Every structure is written in structure tokens, then in C-alpha cells.
Amino acid sequence: MPQRFRYATAVVVLATACMTGAAHAAKGVIVSNAWMRPTVERQPVAPVYFDITSHRSARIVQITSPDADSVVIVDSDATDDRRTRTNFMLEGGKTVRFAPRGTYVELRSVRRAVKNGDKVPLTLTLTDSKDRKSAVDVAVQVRGLAAPASAKR
Fold first, then answer.
1. pLDDT per residue as tens digits for the range 18-77
2. DSSP label at residue 39
3. Is 15 a residue whose pLDDT tops 70?
4. Predicted pLDDT of residue 54
5. What pairing do the DSSP bridges indicate for beta strands 45-54 and 133-142?
6. Running DSSP on this structure, what letter comes out for residue 100?
7. Mean pLDDT within 125-136
8. For the whole model, what pTM was predicted?
9. CA–CA separation, 60 vs 52, rounded Å?
């Protein structure tokens, strides 16, 4: 009976997460807490933050969004020194936080203005140890401070 209860609870939690957009999963990879600030059209850059867990080691080899000309992974540190990466290794079983003043994703040349409550689609392409590709679609929640009125066109 207790194991049956645990299974039912896990199913309810997973179903709730999927319905609310809180977590996005594919082939053992879970992306959660994806968010970004509002933007204006043609904004040069827009950081995106999220948590990602891969049950097995995998590498993020590409990130795309229809709302940006390109998407890159950025490493920054306390001195605000920034380096872009073309890929990112995920260690199996560990959660990585893409966050301010650390590693994060950056939309470049944002194609449309987004406001609080909007969702911005991202697709993460990953490869496993056998070079098999898989994709994780993420709906990034726009929240936080509004874009400045003077920057709107």
C-alpha cells in the first residue's frame, strides 16, 4: 500500500508540473524554473535562466528560439568577465542552475517584444555518450520588471 501511494503521488506531481509548464522533460532531461525578464523588439541581448537535470551525462550542443536571431551559452563571473560557449556538458544525476552571475543562456537580437506573462519557446538539442540527439522544448516564463517605456517603439 505505501509503495502504491508513492507511485500515485509521483504521477500527480509530474502531471501537475507538465500542465503548469513548470518542468519540461525529454529522454531523462528535466528543465524547470525557466524564466526571463521582459524585452523590447530588437533588444540586443536577453538572458534566460533555468535549472536542468540529466539522468545520464549529456551535452547541450545547440539552443534555438524563434524569438531570437541566435542563442548562446554565456559564462560570467564576479568581475563581469563574459565568455560564450558552443556547448555545455551535463553531469548525470546533477542539477545545473543557469543563473545570473554564472552560466546562463542569452537570446541575441530579440525578434519581438515580450511582456510579463508571455512564454518564449526554446529548444535545447542534446547529445548523449553515443552521439544520439534529443531535443527538449522549453516554454520560458516572462516575469519581473517591465521593459522601460522609453525603449518601446
1. 443 446 656 689 999 999 999 998 899 999 999 999 999 999 999 999 999 999 999 987
2. B
3. no
4. 94
5. unpaired
6. T
7. 93
8. 0.77
9. 11
In angstroms, the CA 44 to CA 87 distance is: 21
Q: What is the dihedral of CA 108, 112, 115, 120, to 10 degrees?
A: -60
- C-alpha to C-alpha distance for 28 and 23, rounded to whole angstroms: 12
The grid coordinates of residue 37 equal 525578464
CA-CA distance, 46 to 108, in Å (whole number)?
Answer: 7
CA distance 76 to 72: 13
**The CATH number of the domain covering residues in 24-151:** 2.60.40.1890
The number of CA neighbours under 13 Å toward the Cβ of 42 is 3
Residues of the chain with pLDDT > 90: what percent?
65
Quick check: helix, strand or coil at residue 48?
A: strand
pLDDT given for residue 97 in this prediction:
97
The grid cell for 102 is 554564472
The DSSP 8-state label assigned to residue 55 in this structure reads S
Residue pointed to by grid coordinates 552571475: 101
Would you give the DSSP letter of residue 6? H
Distance CA 29, CA 94 (A): 11
Sorted by where each begins, the domain ranges of the chain are 24-151
Largest CA distance in the chain: 61
